[in-house]
Amino acid sequence: MTLQSMTGFARNEGTTGRYRWAWEFRSVNGKGLDIRPRLPQGLESLETEVRRLVTERLTRGNLQVTLSLTVSENRVEAVLNRDALDAVLRLRDELGPGLIDPAPLRLDTLLSIRGLVDLREATDDEAAIAARDGDIVAGLERAVAALVDMRASEGDALRRVLEDHITRIEELALQIEADPSRQPDEIGRRLENQLAVILDNTSGLDRDRLHSEIALIATKADLREEIDRLKAHVIAARELLTTGGPIGRKLDFLAQEFNRESNTICSKSNAVAVTSAGIELKVVIDQFREQVQNLE
Fold it and tell me: Average pLDDT over the chain, rounded to whole?
């Protein structure tokens, strides 16, 4: 499965009859899937379709979904109030014998009568509306597909960045592992020096206290567990990137584990080289986690 970034943009537009419509999708990072549709009046029922199509393809991200609809041609139609016309004609018949001018009623005279003729915007029939709505839904499907493609493209770029970070984490872990300060003879020499300092500055140190101090020094000198865990986390991170899919949360957890081990290494380090590598390790892990926040 491919990786998907949570950031992306998609637009799909078209014309149906006298209507021009356009879908726009804007996606940014989010803890879950938050869909916020903005639909024109009269097309609010499309929200159900928007949510269905998006949830079928995406699992995380904050999405702003906008549908714009404009009319490219305004048509006006005249609607005759037949009841009013019948009333006017009946009145004319009743007054006919007494009228000075019994000529037939002219159109301009009829149009001047308030309420007789109403001029209003023409409406489309059901077939035209159905064709428009069908094209809008098809455009919605294309827009969702385009957004998924863009997020997948961004995901591929993120994969390469994350792989580089993981490789660098592995290199630093091996560098720390191979540092001369971790060789048994070097660890023994440091233990002897630190033990001598304790004995020189402490009078009447009992054997139990001495054993505790030696154990503490030996523990601080041993980074084997931290290095082994770093290596295991590197393997797990690579497996996740190979598997793909919505792995953002899992990689974020691994980033926290990476950071925990690097903190321990820095706190236990008694060598400048190890401390320096540990600090760089923390920087790379921060960069890794920052990029992971963009993954679905």
Answer: 85
Give pLDDT tens digits for 81-90.
Answer: 777 777 777 7
The Cα 168–Cα 285 span in angstroms is: 9
**Token digits of residue 212:** 């505790």
DSSP letter assigned to residue 106: P
Give the relative orientation of helices 272-292 and 126-178 as an angle to the nearest 10 degrees: 170
* Phi, psi for 43 (deg, rounded to 5): -120, 20
Alpha carbon distance 285, 264 (integer Å): 14
Closest-CA residue to 67 (of 143, 173, 148): 143
Rounded to an integer, what is the distance from CA 211 to the centroid of its chain?
Answer: 55
Query: What angle, 0 to 180 degrees and rounded to 10, lies between the N-to-C axes of helices 126-178 and 47-57?
Result: 30
**For the segment 162-206, what is each residue's pLDDT rounded down to a tens digit?**
999 999 999 999 999 988 776 556 666 666 666 666 666 665 556
Give CA–CA dist 253/292, Å, rounded. 10
List strand residue ranges (DSSP E) for 3-89, in order: 8-16, 19-28, 33-38, 61-71, 76-80
Q: In which region does residue 3 sit, left (phi positive, over 0), alpha (psi from -120 to 50) or beta (all else)?
A: beta
Query: What whole-number percentage of the chain has pLDDT above 70?
Result: 75
Q: What pLDDT does 87 receive?
A: 77
**264 close to 230: Cβ distance less than 8 angstroms:** no
The length of the chain in residues reads 296
Among positive and negative, which fits the CA dihedral 268, 184, 217, 194? Answer: negative
Going 4 to 9 to 14 to 20, the CA torsion angle's sign is positive
Q: Which residues contact 168 (CB under 8 A, 6 or more apart)?
A: 284
